[in-house]
Amino acid sequence: MTPGNEPRHVAHETVEERLAEDIVEELDLHPVPDEKAGEDEPLPSMSEQIAEQLGGVRGLIESSIPVLAFVVLNVLFGDSVLGLEKRSALLWAIVGSVGSAVAIGAVRLARRQPVRHAVNGLFGIAVGAWLAWRTGDAKNFYLPGILLTFGQAAVLLLSVVFRKPLIGYAWGIMANKGRQDWFGNTRLFRTFQWLTLVWVASLSLRAGIQYYLWAIGEANALGIVRILVSWPIYAATFALTAWAIHRVTSAQQAGLEEA
């Protein structure tokens, strides 16, 4: 088919619709039933959504390895064990962290597996490593992540203030085929408003704990908290989000079927 001779519905397809279709296809997400079209395709289960967002158990482990390598090597080569000079210990920690992140990406690439989680993780690790080396302080390895988390919380809060809850937009893209028709659904809108505030609280808690440890110079504790505290908080928040949305959409769909 030559350009310009596409069917009318293809030619007028928007960029947003194409992007939404690509995301749904890549993540294997099923759209929420359309009240008008009468579709009955279910939402992904809560566990499926959580697993996808976290990259599955493997994604969770892989994202933790570079941070764990940084903590372990910084302790091993620092004053606590081998007693190397602070900057030398920091260098070993940085090499181990960045090296493990690169290795994870390389293995995924070699196996022809998705690498987006690995690439995102490598970028964050690289920025943190550069900042830690430039300042000579291991705690600054975690500073970009802390600031990013605070920034995400601020953006989400603003979206609630302006009555444009971002959790609603995320749901529209991930599970509603790019349609943002939830604005006309009062119950869904209110659900997205308070869920977005839950995410603000969750992100602020995670970043706040880490910032406190950063302020008092507890670099190794920062790494441990990032692995053992941040992920469970994120998982619990996402589980609550998936449950709340599924509860509302299922109830409304059941009401339509009874009518």
UniProtKB/TrEMBL annotation:
InterPro entries tied to this protein: UCP010219
Keyword Transmembrane helix: yes
Pfam families in the record: DUF3159
Keywords: Membrane, Transmembrane, Transmembrane helix
Keyword Transmembrane: yes
Membrane-traversing stretches: 59-77, 89-110, 117-135, 141-162, 194-215, 221-245
This protein's name: Membrane protein
Organism of derivation: Actinoplanes siamensis
